[in-house]
Amino acid sequence: xxxxxxxxxxxxxxxxxxxxRELLTALLRLDQTNEYLFFADRQTAxxxxxxxxxxxxxxxxxxxxxxxxxxxGRRSVRDLWVxxxxxxxxxxxxxxxxxxxxxxxxxxxxKVAVTIHDxxxxxxxxxxxxxxxLELFWNLKERAALLQSDRIVTVSEYSKKQILxxxxxxxxxxxxxxEAPGEAFGRMAPGTDHGRVLSRFGLQLEDxxxxxxxxxxxxxxxxxxxxxxxxxxQSRPELKLVLAGDYxxxxxxxxxxxxxxxxxxxxxxxxxxxxxxxxxSELAHLYNTASLFVFPSLQEGFGLPAVEAMACGTPIAAxxxxxxxxxxxxxxxxxxxxxxxxxxxxxxxxxxxDVLMQKLRESGLKRAKMFQWSxxxxxxxxxxxxxxxx
Length: 390
Description:
Layout: E1 2-6, H1 15-30, E2 35-41, H2 42-47, E3 55-59, H3 65-68, H4 77-88, E4 94-97, E5 111-115, H5 120-123, H6 132-148, E6 151-154, H7 157-166, E7 174-176, H8 194-199, E8 209-213, H9 222-233, E9 240-244, H10 256-265, E10 272-276, H11 280-289, E11 292-295, H12 304-311, E12 316-319, H13 324-328, E13 332-335, H14 340-352, H15 354-368, H16 373-389
Helix pairs in contact: 1-16, 9-14, 12-15
């Protein structure tokens, strides 16, 4: 097979960017038979090194597709046309979009697979789009992608059910490719130099802190987490809260200003840490030293930070909404993300129960082994092969 790939998401720092990098790297390591052609805008191609056994075709767009497809922007007709023509010039059997965010219509005879990671834009539009106009542009893009796709790829059974709920597509058209932790995430020895890394964020080795990882978007439900943390501090004044995620260059709708104001009003800014962009190595140190990983999101398509936390042996308290119960299983304790009282009670119970925390650590380490990028690569290759057969 000759497989074209939209590599424009490669640089993105959110979960779908990691999915693109990790999956394609594993896929090209696994598959030594088929030919892969990466189509990338000039900005992405300039900043990144793609797998050596992929041929890269650089397309001269005027803006990075990820910047243009942000919460406050959209891609120009010219750039869509330029990407379309670049793909049309090359005979392909399959064209794969690792994320719908950078989708563009193609016009050659290749079969098309489009990845839809979640249906958050459909269920939580006001938490995703600044205005109705940008919501309309997104819906038009999604509709075009669904019409053109021969196969939809998603990342969990939950996301598959959500796609079937919101969009009229046959279940047989949807395939699942799971996610996995990167190589940086694992249990670190006690002698590891945690203190030096923690000091970069104003933390000390003896500090006890809750950790939440991901974007700062409204659907992450961090405002409620701050309210819960404020109540926790009344009996645990030593506790801190660390929110790890890029709040300066993230292209999605951000809750950073609202969270900062809330923290100020609650007089807890000294106990709250916004890390900003953080490397995988730094993040692994935070997972390994956190008292508890808290994932309060209103919805996740997969929830990759939870798997990273499990791989590091971090106890988890998570929302029972979305895909998280499916992914975390017996490695976490769950709460209703809309119930502040229950969130408080679950977090409090885990923090005071050392036996439970140890059980969650051990369950997480065991469960994390189920998620491997090599497995995800095999799942993707099986989908491509089935597309050609049918």
